[in-house]
Amino acid sequence: MNTVAIVGTGLIGASFGLALRKAGFRGEIAGVSSAPALADALAAGAIDRGAALPDAVANADVVFLSQTIGRILDTLRHLDQLVKAGALVTDAGSTKQEIVDRALQSLTRCRFLGGHPMAGKERRGANAASADLFEGCTWVLTPMESDDTAEFVDWIRRIGAHPLVMSPEEHDRVVSFTSHLAQMASTALASTVADAVQPGALRVAGSGLADMTRLAMSSYNLWRDIVATNTDTMEKALSLYIQKLEHMRENLRTRQLQEEFERAARLAAQVRRNKL
């Protein structure tokens, strides 16, 4: 891996460039994005140069698609005739099934490795990028076939992430609970409080509300594509969550509420252990 093209130099793309540099990558990193995003990525040291897509990917050994899901799908549609034969195309999309399907349909001259680094921030853009963003995070991989991707997977490890292979279907089912449901719950909580409490009364709020509504600051423009490409599994996750809330409401005065607290505390502790 001597040349990398990062298509989408926002938070994830720029952080990937910075992480590669920190891990010792000495090859060229080209960036493809809007002019302001490229300027920020260059200033951060995440890329060596900005370029149009055909120029950036023509000689790239690895093409890293870190756009919104809709743009990843569109880029895959046009990428095959632009890339170097045998190059590895990978992505950072938050859902996988539609992206993998599009890659199967569109890419014939290069390899594709679906990916999803489980990392992020509320802030977006290269200005918020960090070389340590992926340190300790799970990096899900959804390979389509048994092509050799060992070198790229080794770089994932070198930047501090932990590769985990899953099928696209299982990935989308799991993240509907472990990621997407958390976003919907945070958004619903913040929206409910906004409807019920006057802004001046928010001075009464404790740190719990701030913790629980952190994800509510996320951009709808980002989440629109996630919801659109994982609707069925998200509907199932939300239905189960609503059932759980109904169960807790019905048992506010029973021992079953204590059992829910205990079950939830065990899960919360396990999540935190996994992050260590």
Written overview of the protein:
This protein has helices at 11-22, 35-44, 53-57, 69-79, 97-106, 150-158, 168-196, 207-212, 220-228, 231-250, 255-275, and strands at 3-7, 28-32, 49-50, 62-65, 88-91, 111-117, 138-143, 162-165. With 276 residues, the chain is of the alpha/beta class. Helix 4 packs parallel to helix 5 (97-106). Helix 5 (97-106) links the parallel strand 5 (88-91) and strand 6. The model has no long low-confidence stretch (mean pLDDT 94). The longest helix has 29 residues, at 168-196. The chain has two domains: 3-166, NAD(P)-binding Rossmann-like Domain (Rossmann fold, 3-Layer(aba) Sandwich); 171-275, 6-phosphogluconate dehydrogenase C-terminal like domain (6-phosphogluconate dehydrogenase C-terminal fold, Orthogonal Bundle). The radius of gyration is 20 Å and the shape is elongated. The chain is 51% helix and 13% strand. The protein has eleven helices and eight strands.
